[in-house]
Amino acid sequence: MLSNTTTSSFVSTESATFQDGSTMALIMPVVNRSCYPPVIILSPTPSTLSSPSEYQRSQNIYMTSYLQLNCNESFSATKKWTVKECSSSCTFEIQLDQSIITTRSELFIPAKTLSYGTYELKLSVTMMALSNSTSFISTFITINPSSVIVNLVQFGTSMITHGFRQNLTLNPGAYSTDPDTITFNTSNWNYDYYCRIDGHYNFPSINGSMLTINDSRIDSINSSCFGNQPNNRTSWQYAGSKISDKSALIILSGSLVSNQTYQFTVMMTHRQNSYLKATGSVLVHVQDSNPHMIAIVCVISSMCIPDIKYQYVNPTTQVALASICIDDCKTVQSITWNIYQGLMNSSSNSVQWTLFNEMNTYRDIWFFGMNTSNFTAINKLFIDNPSIIYWRFEVVYSFSSESSSSSLSFVINRPPQNGFCSISPTNGTTSTLFTISCFNWTDDDGIKDYSFYGWTTNPTDRVMFAHSYVSNIQLLLSTTDDNTSLINIIVYIRDSYDCAAEFNISSIIIVPDWTYMENLIANFQNSTNDLFVQMLSSGNQNMVSQVVTSLSQQFNIMNNQAIKTALANGISSTTIAISPLGSKTQQPSSVSLNASALVEYNKQLNTYANVRDSLITYITNLMITTADSIKLQASSLAQLTEATNQLTRTTLMFASDKCYQLAWSLHSMVTTITSEDVQTAANYIAQCANNVLSSVNGPLQQRTTILDLDWSRANNFPVDYDTNLESEWANPNLFAYNNDFSWETIQKGRNSYYQKQMADQINTQTTETISLITKALNIHLNIGQNLIMNTSSILLSVETISIDALSNKLIQQVGNAQIRIPPNFTLTTNDNTSISLRSIMQPLALADNTQLQSNTNLSTSLSLTILDRNGNEIPIQTDINHPIELIILRDPNIIIPSMTLQNVTSMNMSP
Question: What is the rounded distance in angstroms from the CA atom of residue 655 to the CA atom of residue 289?
């Protein structure tokens, strides 16, 4: 970086020019050198006006910055993004929609917001303690047209069956889509059609130039699809609109030969810009009968990227397809799906297809919905057959007198290759900043981004550390025990179509830095020189999430150790903590209660609770932008809320709200992201939501200690105490116990009152959060598929089954917990195709509002919900002879008093 500085007696102006040509300027007074303007680091790397970064209009634009802060007074700063159009000069500022947040360190502009052209994106940052000083950085982008998706038939089906005596309509003007607009503008394009007999001839051409179907030069050498027609018979006609008559083509009945397969291709050229071209193709198999038109569509359209004859598919994700009968198919008798694998024949330069003959072997293992309109093949099909790059999925609809089929052909999108990633240093402490660098990754589609995960003993319990658009990143890493941990780092390198390569970095050793941790806790609120505090104050998602995750994991270790110490000093674990699911029984100590140990435990408990109370504010202010943003923030929240005995009501409120926002965002983008991303995000969100639910019920169930911060906030005089005569706080009748209006009773009652209020609110919000992630998961589940999230916070099982399969259904949970459905029941639903079952096991039952009807404080919770395809609950009725059976486990640390056994048969019961 080259820098220049000019100084007057009042103002200093410093500018910096980076190697890529981007600039950052600092305008500041020559006073108050205890506070300096921040240094702004932008990602992706800033680009220049002469060489702007290129985006398609259908792409989201996401810029993130990291602010290096150096101010002893305060880290508070104002941030402002501006967007200027650069048609001639970058002077005209664009007024963005109010929904686009421009006052954070990040900028997220949704797809289709900006028109075609070049823009300057500028971030300005001013420290509150240095209001006359501003730092800014600019980057330049160009918005280009997206590639048009050309479909000759509905939904872009690769191959259809057509009758010899039927007219065939090819209508790219109606069925094509432009990702940049809501509707496709047919009149913007010119259309040229080509045809060949598939497997026998190439497209007619002269000197390498293909000949259209109406070209007079087509002859016996350049074989025509319509060579069997008499000279006076018309084989086809245009059927488009008056403005664009060639936007549709009808192949007239009898023009094609039975038992032959034809490839029709259209090449479209934009009328105003001849450089914009798009091509689409369809295979048509002709038969003597009059089959119905069947279309196939990808359930998640973004997972199937059109490529003329094929769709790109990522081998790391499942393929979910839906078939639709365009004609009247009420008389359909059966539906069957087939899979073909293809090998390229080098001599004929064509793909030879072979039936994949193991479908029945892997029914309901790899393949789901084999005899329904929807079909799913999980990624094991591709992973276990890495040498096969061509796949075809065919659906056959059988009727009484004929059958109809269609297919969709795929080519494997290869993940990034030939690269490696390294970490430096190879060992360190919990306060070490590690640098991960990835080199030499290549992909024909370009490298999109990098994601970083870590785990210690169980790969399924991995934590997300960061997501980056650049190949180098700094990470904070943490331990999972109080000594030394071996951390395994996984890097996912993704191409532009979301195909990811997985790279495992050699395990590294992390040692806890307890001294640094103790100093940080002691000075957390007042330290402006601490690296962790600076990272939190930057507003950068990666930095904030890393610090929250790292600190939370270390606090969780300390909390577990504190509980063990308390248990060894005669304190019952059931009065200070909620046992995680799957945990083993802890043997109680034989020593009597040590009062000083309890005091020390509570002191440490409240110290960590206070820090978590501060940490939550940093993560709740982060923007939610992409699926990676959801996963990153939800992963951090799952760690932050893991210690359910250390969460204040303020922490609970913020965490519950944020979890709900993440669930809502996940549900809103579920049709554009992979099932694997949905499952990962849903797992983290479910843990966060249930941690919060367990925590808020802990004090009410007398399972956890009332925190000092909650007590003081409940009982300190409110600011409006003298003016708000209707304040709940001032109404002793709400808090007294019977006729006891003592100050101690009022304080206790007031805290309990607010705890119950918060519990009701969080119970409702958690229900909504779980409902949202259930709907998101169900979109990716076909009949017969199930998903189990088995964590220490929650066990959530979701599966889709037929109604008949519900009879005598047994659902196993952790330990011996289970749910059994009787053979006879009544469901109130109008949909007889499939239903979804959601079972949830939680570590702690909800508190009874009356505290009189039941004693559930030492019980886990078990629930079953039956849902229709739209996510609505379906009531189920059984009779007294055939009830639903539930086995609900107690807390593993419950102490059941010993019993005295007596032989009652030997007693004299005579009067």
Answer: 62
